[in-house]
Amino acid sequence: MPVYTLPELPYDYAALAPVISPEIIELHHDKHHAAYVKGANDTLEQLAEARDKESWGAVNGLEKNLWPSISPATSCTASTGRT
């Protein structure tokens, strides 16, 4: 089973200052990105457990959440790239 890892930053937190503060880089890398990695790994583990137990109710729940979250366009238009 693939496991995701949080990559190390190829630069110091302060390397992008003053455009992006070290605190923002640290927050996004160490908190946000780390949470996404953990969430992906937790999901993979839960799917593996469901497979092992042949318990597909949880997996079916994922599909149930999918359909209401997508819909055909009603009021948006495609971007033309023009201003």
UniProtKB/TrEMBL annotation:
Domain Manganese/iron superoxide dismutase N-terminal: 4-66
Keywords: Metal-binding, Oxidoreductase
EC number of the protein: 1.15.1.1
Enzyme's top EC category: oxidoreductase
MF GO annotations: metal ion binding; superoxide dismutase activity
Highest taxon, organism lineage: Bacteria
Keyword Metal-binding: yes
A Pfam family that the UniProt record links to this protein: Sod_Fe_N
Stated family: Belongs to the iron/manganese superoxide dismutase family.
Name of the protein in question: superoxide dismutase
